[in-house]
Design a protein that fits this description.
Largest sheet: 4 strands, antiparallel
Number of strands: 4
Shape: elongated
Number of helices: 3
Strand order of the largest sheet: 1-2-3-4
Distance between the termini: 45 Å
Order of helices and strands: EEEEHHH
Structural class: alpha+beta
């Protein structure tokens, strides 16, 4: 089961949950993405989050990792939102995005 939503503080979130081990518990994962992905698997992500593997339901696993991802994004520095919006608008490559961002702030 997967869920995609956003933007949240400039980023899109993609979460995935599935049965773990014996199938009685569920695990979950999330990707914090630069742009809105078509699916969890095709996400252009900035970073990933593991939501654990001891959830009692697939819906609970998905809800838990969704909350973790949202909390992580809301606690990023304010400049992260600017980077995400610039990546979406200009489709700039990640290395160039960081390099130009670094030099712009160093010269200001």
């Amino acid at each position: 089961m997967e869920r995609i939503w956003g933007p949240v503080n400039g980023f899109y979130l993609a979460a995935y949950a599935s049965p773990a081990g014996d199938g009685e518990r569920f695990c979950s994962y999330a990707k914090v993405c630069w742009t809105r992905p078509e699916s969890y698997w095709d996400a252009d992500c900035a970073f990933k989050i593991f939501g654990g593997e001891q959830h009692r339901s697939i819906e609970g696993a998905l809800a838990a990792v969704a909350m973790d991802a949202r909390n992580e994004v809301l606690h990023l520095p304010s400049h992260a939102r600017t980077l995400a919006e610039r990546r979406q608008r200009d489709r700039i490559t990640i290395p160039r995005l960081f390099a130009t961002s670094f030099f712009r702030h160093r010269m200001a």
